[in-house]
Amino acid sequence: MSQAKTGKKSRRSFLKTSLATGGTLAASLTLDQAVHAGGNDQLKVGLIGCGGRGTGAATQALRADRNVKLFAMGDAFDDRLQSCLTRLGTDKTIAEKLDVARERRFVGFDAYRQVIGCCDVVLLCTPPHFRPIHIRAAVEAGKHVFAEKPVAVDAPGVRSVLATCEQARKRGVSIVAGLQLRYSLPHKETIRRVHDGAIGPIHTVQANDFRGTIWHRAREEGWSDMTWHMRNWYYFTWLCGDFNVEQHVHMLDLSSWLKGEYPVRATGTGGRQQRTGPEFGHIYDHFSIIYEYGDGSRLFAQCRQQRGCTNDISVHAAGTRGRVTLAGRRFSINTDKEWRYNGKENEAVQTEHDELFASIRSGRLINNGEYLCKSSLLAIMGRMAAYTGQAITWEMALNSQEDLTPPAYDWNVPLPVPPVAMPGITKFI
To answer: Exposed, middle or buried: residue 47 (CB in 10 Å: 0-12, 13-18, 19+)?
Structure first.
């Protein structure tokens, strides 16, 4: 296994470094945009985070525009970078667009800086903890961004990205979010009808994300604490935010889009029943959160990752005139009659990249930052309510001082597993 050896760095020092390295490029931003907008200039794409989602995002980015190339890659681990590059090379539809010379393959916690420094568009696909650091560095460098969801794992991270997204507007760079349902044609048409009054004012929303267990990485002999955390990132709150943040954010974002607003208060519960072994870190395996809106309506959000159970990934809403269902390939509105979506289908994960590159070419920039940040905070708010057992308001969640950043980004500093959160004992910070 190959690892980068780095010194100790805090998230704050990362942000300061990002600002310093990117600020000098702002003056050339207008020229860069003029070169690429509407033209045929080749766009250099950089991938930061070379796991499964990073591999998928790189594939979609390279298919989105005829004159792009993957020019640089970065990951914490060299073997993951090499594996990703190999997999990309087996896809004949994009293989000729790979131009990642060995000197542009960067490894370690600092890899993001080198990738950003030599590309026009960056794909941010690392574990969510690093998203605020990487978005800030990319925007300050004047680079267009595809950012996977969620945008952060804690409120300080959300606040950071909210500020960065505002800077992106001023600097004229696009930020497209990996909340791909926003780019789904069936979802867009169904929700358009709801917003036009098809079911009347909404009083109840239900969001389900019931699925089986997913991957985990057993700790190998010789791995340091940080190595194990990074290899097994899904199971540590500082890296993923817990699974209701990392995964259920899709259904929460869809619910908020459907309702047209964000809630003011959350209460709920959660815990771990099946995933109790040390290989599963300290996250939960089920959540049930009740979100309250300012008008008194409710969002009932449940998620579960347990084997041997019924699966259901769907959103339902009831209004004064009827109800709507968005589940798998079923998109229906029921009032005095039923409407079902029978229109064009699309691959939303591809469409979001198509629109990103089209925006760069046309100069009509996209900024998905607001809903990316707010939906991420909505999920974090639910985790706070479940972990503490307390009622958490939107303002409490947004202004929380809980910073999940580890003491150092260092492979060899001890990083013990935090205790499993206990409602009524774990404190809100």
So the answer is: buried
Residue with tokens 């033209």, as numbered in its chain: 39
Type of residue found at 132:
P
Two tokens, residue 283: 């996250």
308-357 pLDDT per residue, tens = 999 999 999 999 999 999 998 899 999 999 999 999 999 999 999 999 99
Contact between residue 266 and residue 252 where contact means Cβ atoms under 8 Å apart: no
Record: fold of 11-181+351-367: Rossmann fold (3.40.50)
Parallel, antiparallel, or unpaired for β 330-334 and 68-75?
Answer: unpaired
CATH architecture label of 184-344+377-398: 2-Layer Sandwich (3.30)
What count of other Cβ atoms lies within 10 Å of the Cβ of residue 389?
Answer: 17
- Domain boundaries, given as residue ranges, for the chain: 11-181+351-367, 184-344+377-398
Task: Band the pLDDT of 37: cuts 50, 70, 90.
Answer: low
How does DSSP classify residue 183?
Answer: G
List 176's β-bridge partners, or say none. 146
**Torsion of Cα atoms, 391 then 394 then 400 then 404, to 10°:** 90
Token output for 33: 């945009």
* Residue 420 DSSP class: P
CB atoms within 10 A of CB 45: 30
Residue that the structure tokens 């041997």 belong to: 308
- Confidence at residue 26, expressed as pLDDT on a 0 to 100 scale: 31
Sole residue written with tokens 């409120």? 155
**CA–CA dist 138, 19 (Å, integer):** 9
Among the listed residues 68, 80, 71, the one whose alpha carbon sits nearest the alpha carbon of residue 46: 71
pTM: 0.90
Residue matched to tokens 């990703």: 84
Phi, psi of 75 (to 5 degrees): -155, 160
Indicate if the pLDDT at residue 27 is higher than 50: no
- CA–CA gap between residue 365 and residue 356 (Å, rounded): 8
- Whether 18 has a pLDDT exceeding 60, the answer reads no
Look at the alpha carbons of 229, 232, 238, 239 in this order and tell me if their dihedral is positive or negative: positive
